[in-house]
Write a structure and sequence with these properties.
The protein has 465 residues and is mainly β. It has helices at 5-31, 129-134, 224-228, 366-369, 447-450; strands at 43-56, 62-77, 81-94, 97-113, 116-123, 142-143, 151-152, 155-164, 167-174, 186-188, 191-193, 205-208, 211-220, 232-240, 244-254, 259-264, 273-280, 283-293, 298-309, 320-321, 326-336, 344-356, 382-393, 398-409, 414-425, 428-439, 454-464. It has one domain (5-464): Porin, CATH 2.40.160. The strands form 4 sheets. It has an 18-stranded antiparallel β-barrel. It starts with a helix and ends with a strand.
């Protein structure tokens, strides 16, 4: 007997959460272990953040989401070994739909030897500047319950770093892979349901010749072992001095998003359309190139990333498969310190994606169908942004900072504006953040357009030990 989507999703998420909880336990154990040859005192910070989101999906549907996020950063540096972690717990409530999740952005030990630095655990790697600037989630997975403010998560395995003068090499190998984490959903009565406004549910009806036909779904998800226990690796070579850097990298891993295939019922019924969805974890190759030039207060950079699927189509011709497009990402940016006034930093960046499409058209739109099992889908295919950062040292004990971000989606003709104020006094940190999504009233495509006219506000309180 085939198991339901809910049962399989619970199994997968339960396994992920068990492994993440194991990371929590390991981190707490590490805190009690004496540091050999410790050269600096351990540092730790606890941050509690609460947010309220108002989303207008259409003229009649509105969501109000409340969340609570507890985060801990801890690190120490020894003469021959380091330890660091960034852990979090999220609780989210929306329309009587409660959910929680665990975040392990980083958790690793580093051992320094004459042969190089060896790190074990989950550690972030800067392999591509475009991926880091725009949070694409290609080279590293994302904790993206809020796709407007995703958190990058490192790769789990063995990391290696070695430098010779101004040249360096980074390598990574593992047999564990955690995909993106994002809004959860369930399947009840052949219907995809979720309490999160960030999850773009597939269409429930199809309208043709003034007739509205219900759509029913059956989803098969991959086995846990097919997702988690997968080999992956990367290699980066680079050169870096005080004003110039260049690097190239190759990554081979399982995609951080599920690959999907769809099959429509052969027996057409006047009262419903049946869609069967099959998901699989497929491999991808990523080729990265970065270059940066920093003459004085200016910084210029450019980045290229190719995403090429390794696996081909997995099903017969009766299935329609998606997310097998080969994609090229191009991005560049410039940053200026002390812009107009002291301590004001301004930066602008641009990104564009070129797709070599292999997809086939379906009865329903691929963009809508692709939302099934998509944990993160906030895609910036052609966008520009402007960021401003201002730091003001009030006195020896107090500091005030302001960060503003404006992003314009050229493809969707929509806008995102955010602002964050941070006040720090001694060990106490207070944060206030807000933002607005807007789009043209007659535009109904794209993520920002779908959630147009929305706003969010959050408040955070932190303490450093």
């Amino acid at each position: 007997m085939n198991r339901t989507l809910s049962e399989k999703i619970i199994d997968i998420l339960g396994t992920y959460n068990f492994m993440l909880m194991l990371f929590f336990a390991l981190s707490l154990t590490a805190l009690s272990v004496p540091v050999v040859g410790q050269s600096s005192a351990p540092s730790s910070q606890i941050h509690l953040k609460t947010g309220l989101y108002n989303q207008k999906v259409d003229q009649t549907t509105n969501y109000q989401t409340y969340d609570l996020f507890l985060e801990n950063n801890y690190s120490f540096r020894g003469k021959s070994n380091n330890y660091s972690h960034n852990l979090g717990v999220l609780y989210q409530n929306s329309n009587d739909f409660n959910t929680y999740d665990f975040m392990v952005s980083e958790l690793y030990w580093t051992f320094k030897t004459n042969a190089g630095d060896f790190s074990f655990g989950r550690k972030k790697q800067l392999l591509n500047l475009a991926d880091a600037e725009w949070d694409l989630g290609l080279t590293q997975s994302l904790f993206a319950h809020d796709p407007l403010n995703p958190v990058s998560q490192g790769q789990i395995g063995l990391h290696y770093y070695k430098n010779w003068s101004q040249f360096y090499v980074k390598a990574f190998a593992s047999y564990l892979h955690f995909p993106n984490q994002g809004p959860k959903f369930t399947n009840k009565n052949e219907d995809i349901q979720t309490g999160s406004p960030w999850f773009n549910a597939p269409p429930k009806t199809l309208v043709e010749t003034n007739l509205r036909t219900p759509i029913r779904y059956k989803v098969e998800t991959p086995e846990v072992s097919d997702v988690v226990f997968q080999p992956s690796g990367s290699l980066q070579l680079g050169y870096e001095n005080q004003i110039f850097s260049v690097s190239a990298a190759y990554i081979n891993q399982v995609s951080n998003e599920f690959h999907k295939a769809y099959r429509f019922s052969q027996e057409t019924s006047p009262d419903r359309i049946f869609v069967k969805v099959n998901a699989a974890a497929l491999r991808q190759e990523l080729w990265s190139a970065n270059i940066a030039y920093t003459p004085g207060d200016y910084s210029l950079w450019a980045s290229y990333l190719k995403d090429r699927p390794v696996d081909g189509y997995q099903f017969d011709s009766t299935w329609v498969e998606t997310q097998l497009d080969e994609e090229d990402w191009y991005s560049a940016g410039i940053k200026k310190n002390h812009f107009l006034v002291t301590n004001l930093t301004a930066s602008i960046a641009y990104i564009q994606k070129e797709s070599h499409k292999n997809r086939k058209e379906t009865l329903l739109g691929l963009k809508e169908l692709d939302s099934i099992l998509s944990r993160t889908y906030f895609e910036r295919s052609k966008s520009a942004n402007l960021k401003l950062l201002y730091d003001y040292q009030i006195n020896k004990k107090s500091k005030l900072s302001f960060v503003s971000r404006y992003e314009y989606s050229i493809a969707d003709k929509s806008e995102l504006t955010t602002a964050k104020v941070n006040y720090q006094r001694n060990q106490i940190n207070i944060q206030l953040e807000g933002g607005v999504l807007s789009a043209k009233e007659n535009d109904t495509t794209g993520f920002q357009a779908k959630f147009k006219g929305n706003d969010f506000v959050s408040f955070g309180l932190g303490y450093a030990f």
